[in-house]
Specification:
Length: 216
Amino acid sequence: MAAPARALAPSPESSARALGAKQDARRDQLAESALETLGELGYARTSLREIAAKSPFSHGVVHYYFASKSELIAYCVRYYKARCVTRYDAIVADSSTAEELRAAFAAKLAETLRDEAPMHRLWYDLRTAAYFEPDLREAVVEIDAGLEAMIWRIIERYADLARARPSFDSPTTYAVLDGLFESALTQATLGDPAAAGQRLEASAAAVLPTLISLHP
């Protein structure tokens, strides 16, 4: 009678991949848990100990996965912004006319301003802190580039649907819409959030056509 076959031990490569996936999943869990605290307190007022105190994880666990506050916060914002990008990519994929895309994009900007203002405040806080914190710069540049690329996909699709072309290059287009959003976020934080959302939606819908030009 043949001896039963022994199960093969996992290769070092597959074990390393499994460990990496497990660590990434835990980092994502920590990011989810930390985002609320970060959005409430901002970069300067948040420490790893503060994040641990308001999460299911111990300070030791947080410190095991993230060596510093800067590393954790950069990871959290990168994680959040990656989710944001997919929402706008859905608008690009689902819109069949230029007007439909324009309305959907403006409405989504206003919606995220109303529903997720603390996260956006954290992003602008982090971006400003990068002027003085070298450890943040690589992550900020990466996140900013991803947001610019997202905006450019929207404008290229909008121009294509309108049988037009972008009026400006990618950095200029991003600066226009980013400035519009940051201004609305300031109004929402310091003034009337509802009015800020309405103003942002109307302004974005009005500005978008100026960012494309009809073919000669």
